[in-house]
Design goal:
Number of strands: 2
Order of helices and strands: HHEEHHHH
Structural class: mainly alpha
Low-confidence stretches: 87-93
Length: about 140
């Protein structure tokens, strides 16, 4: 079943209605209750159907806020992918940190907000830098 077909599935339609009812048929970002409403997934997991997430994974958003947040998440994921690749391509930790700061510093406000919303990603960045440091300077980690 394609994703578009899954969005027509009665299980998704039921979940979508439950989320909108929970949010009082109002955008959780701008509080608009007149525009077309969408139900936004705050994250996706491979192999999960759209209706198989915990309730806190969904937000009711108006069409405009949904597009804005979707664009910010896309920009955030592109920066994340660059950072993931970049950390292993640099010759030293200082270069990796500099590149990471550049990527994070170049992100738009909404994309940066996405970055700070996900502590697990922040921890991943720290872990990558620590791994790079361990490779370059293992003596710093010897007991």
């Amino acid at each position: 079943m394609t994703y578009a077909e899954k969005l027509k599935d009665p299980r998704w339609q039921r979940k979508r209605l439950e989320v909108m009812e929970r949010d009082n048929f109002r955008c959780r970002h701008c509080y608009d209750d007149k525009e077309t409403l969408h139900v936004h997934h705050t994250y996706y997991l491979k192999g999960k159907d759209p209706w198989d997430y915990p309730d806190d994974a969904y937000l009711t958003l108006c069409k405009e806020c949904h597009e804005d947040i979707g664009n910010a998440q896309s920009e955030f994921m592109q920066a994340q992918a660059k950072l993931n690749l970049g950390a292993f391509e640099f010759g030293c930790l200082a270069d990796a940190i500099k590149e990471g700061e550049g990527l994070i510093g170049s992100m738009s406000g909404p994309a940066l907000a996405e970055f700070f919303k996900y502590p697990e990603f922040q921890q991943k960045v720290v872990d990558m830098f620590e791994d790079e440091l361990r490779k370059k300077h293992p003596d710093l980690f010897e007991s």
